Every structure is written in C-alpha cells, then in structure tokens.
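Running this now, will post back.
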Amino acid sequence: MTIWLRGVSKTFARPGGRAAQEVRALDGITLAVETAELMVVLGPSGSGKTTMLRCAAGLEEIDEGAIEIEGRD
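Update: finished.
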C-alpha cells in the first residue's frame, strides 16, 4: 500500500486582536510512504508534524493538494 501526500497545504485561523491571523501549518508537502517502509517525522514544536499525520489519517481537511492511499483520494 502506498500513501501519497501531493502538494498538501493546511491553514488554521488564529484569533488575535482586531484582525484574525492565519497560520500555515503545512505548505505544499509532498511525500510517499510505501508498504513496509518505516518513516520517522522529526521537527521542532509547531513545525506541522501532528497536522501532517492528522491530515494523512483523514482527521483534518486539507486546503490544497491531494492525499491518496493506493490511488484513491
């Protein structure tokens, strides 16, 4: 089974003062994970690791791009 993230972007609105600010958690991520492949996601706090995994699992809706599992969206 192959999991593809192709150009995946995700933005969150962050309330702040008079004008809401946006935080771009993922910005055009492209990644392929093959069957039986081990992958480690590393990065500092706030870099988008959990957001990427939640998007891949279908728990977060993406703003741009596509996520495919065995060729299915």
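The two ends are 13 Å apart (CA to CA). More later if anyone needs it.
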